[in-house]
Amino acid sequence: MKRNLVYVVGLGPGDPQFLTAQAKTALENADVLCGYTVYIDLIRSFYPQKEVHATGMTKEIDRCRWALETAQSGKTVALVCSGDAGVYGMASPILELAPNYPSVEIEVIPGLTAALSGGAVLGAPLAHDFCVVSLSDRLTPWEMIEKRLACAAMGDFCVAIYNPSSKGRPDYLQRAVRILLQNGKSEETVCGIVRNIGRERQQSEIITLRELENKQVDMFTTVYIGNKTTKNIESKMVTPRGYRTV
Amino acid sequence: MKRNLVYVVGLGPGDPQFLTAQAKTALENADVLCGYTVYIDLIRSFYPQKEVHATGMTKEIDRCRWALETAQSGKTVALVCSGDAGVYGMASPILELAPNYPSVEIEVIPGLTAALSGGAVLGAPLAHDFCVVSLSDRLTPWEMIEKRLACAAMGDFCVAIYNPSSKGRPDYLQRAVRILLQNGKSEETVCGIVRNIGRERQQSEIITLRELENKQVDMFTTVYIGNKTTKNIESKMVTPRGYRTV
């Protein structure tokens, strides 16, 4: 008997080479692909026969409800996310709504979040303990984001910063860098930025935290802050796996 | 002309369904597979014709040198890691050694680190800002690990704990939980544990931080600590994507 099923699929950066075999199988098994227009556009050409349901950026809850209703009616749905299905992804809101649709099963399929895919471009920036922090204050008060950045700096964590900038908040990365500097990160900390990870016109650069303070980045960029031991080795950002040498 | 090339390949949890297409291609292109015995055993049956070089757990630097020397002699090497190539992986030590082998190119191929693959098993535990912290004090002083745990708790981060236990340090998870409790995490914090992620005999459980304090786990386990808003929804661990409702 056919199950009423929603796959929540992490696509990784977008190019099919970053899909896991499990994610590819889920997309193939689905009757309909549902997601934010930009992500649907990344994959629809590989499945030209599939039904798609694409909606705009802030319509996450509508998409979750649509996916659950469509699965309830008997179709298998793949709800797609860029990066991982969980990290700032759709697995969380759909699992919150799922108890209203008791016949529907949710299967979460992980994918490469930008911290990992962009990290590979830079070298090994997150080889030791790290944090992931989003600078988007759409759902989180800025004071909470500031506190997290301060704690990340005090703990000398490596940090991957998501959503470092947008039209409405062009100076958030600068504000974040100042908080890191005020809480123990040195100006010489090795940092990296990667734009358009795994896509055409991918760009990356290794700079210091002082240089990062006045760097303009856009919403397609992920930013990496090293810890005290992170090095720039022949233009690769490399964090040793510990503080002692083996 | 053939390049002198080492791929550093993140395998994810081990089962081929978690390999990305890029990782699969790298394994296929390699002349020789090199890695820790347990990880080589996970993949050698899929490439029965390939030369393999497998060594024991603490031989990371020897493996890196062997991979670089072998690539220098003209073979393409895939140096494999479980999880991601970067996160506590082999990309870091090999990039540190690489300047001694100027003819050899290193290509880092990301993979699903346990935070993501185990997170998908539990639901969406890391859907908001999170930290990854290893409790292994082989290369990092325990005082540093304590400080990181305290900062993670003060910032109300979700936390994925790697290497929570081993024969030589059976009580480290208990010590870690106490530090989290002393620094602001409540006893009712929703936590999850996943053992043997993506492998036979995968097990998972959702418990409170108070219950976690006296839980015995082994080295094949990854532990997840929620933030203030994390919920147990029908036995899924779900962290909302922000503190405000959409």
Automatic annotation (TrEMBL), chains A, B:
First-tier enzyme category under EC: transferase
Example GO molecular function: precorrin-3B C17-methyltransferase activity
Pathway: Cofactor biosynthesis; adenosylcobalamin biosynthesis
Pfam families, alphabetized: TP_methylase
The keyword Transferase appears for this protein: yes
Signal peptide span: none
Record-listed E.C. numbers: 2.1.1.131
Keyword terms, alphabetized: Cobalamin biosynthesis, Methyltransferase, S-adenosyl-L-methionine, Transferase
UniProt keyword Zinc-finger present: no
GO BP annotations, alphabetical order: cobalamin biosynthetic process; methylation
Top-level taxon in the UniProt lineage: Bacteria
Domain Tetrapyrrole methylase: from-to ranges: 6-212
Protein name, entry field: Precorrin-3B C(17)-methyltransferase
Organism from which the protein derives: Hominenteromicrobium mulieris
Gene: cobJ
